[in-house]
What does this fold into?
Amino acid sequence: MNKTTERHAPVLFHEAIDLLRVQPGATLVDCTIGLAGHSSGIARLLGSHGHLIGFDRDPEALALAKAKLEGVCSELGSQAPKVTLIGEAFSSIASHLQPASVDGLLADFGVSSLQLDEARRGFSFMADGPLNMRMDGSTDMRSGPTAEQVVNEASERELADLIYEYGEERRSRRIARAIVRERPIATTGQLARIVASASRAMKQERIHPATRTFQALRIYVNRELDEIRSLMEAAPRLLKPSARLAVISFHSLEDRIVKDSLREGAGQGIWEIFTRKPVTAAEEELERNPRSRSAKLRAAERTGSENRGQRSGLEQQGTESWGRVQGNMGRGARRSKLTPDL
It folds into this structure.
């Protein structure tokens, strides 16, 4: 087990487990198993007749999750659940699971600690590394463009559009112009310096000037928003009546897709929503794990059963304000033209 695994802290762990209402003998799916932070806790609750299914397209993360869960199952002995790990993106979930076969489904979107902490993966501007950013770590050209290819081959207009759309960066045209002027660009450090010089941090802005540009490239390279839409479309078919869905997002583009999908489904009688406003991290967690500051948890139950049982404390508080939904982007539709840079 490496240092990243040892210090990995799953975000909103107790809140997600509570809302999922994990029961012995259930079938639970972790769509983004990562380093098995949430899944390790779920496995302890499933019992010997339970089944934990985990998805991740990152082979390194999947190997670490396998090792961690093997340790948990060894500790549980005869009470260990069945564990199945699938090395694919969660958008493929419907091809692996039968309709109405799942009791709970968890998704924790965004980049993992492993990916951020490994400079060679190209996700972080805090350490210099190659501009890859593929979630699966592949260098195969058939897997689509790397971030390096995007920044060096896209037109200035295309770069400005994707940085604005996926990064919600108001200075996108200025940044795109600087990127094109400084090409070729080969490393995360080089790109971060170019972006930072073109977009000085605004007053009271707590994030690095390159944060939104790196987010935009990562989302574009990995088609992350399309992945989320595919999952939200498949979830109602896969969940049993009264089964639970819990989704953790980290920026407004992800959260809006989830929120809109749940609201639309609730209007059609598919979902009963437990979190009218998203659950956010408490002060204690924020101090312990700064990465949790942008996390938002939404949860719902698949309708179709009259016997819903006792609700958890979080469900009963679901209409209270757990935090604000940031941003007002739509469902990722392409913009016809950019707003002026500030």
Q: What stands out?
A: Residues 3-113+224-316 form a domain with the Rossmann fold fold (CATH 3.40.50.150).
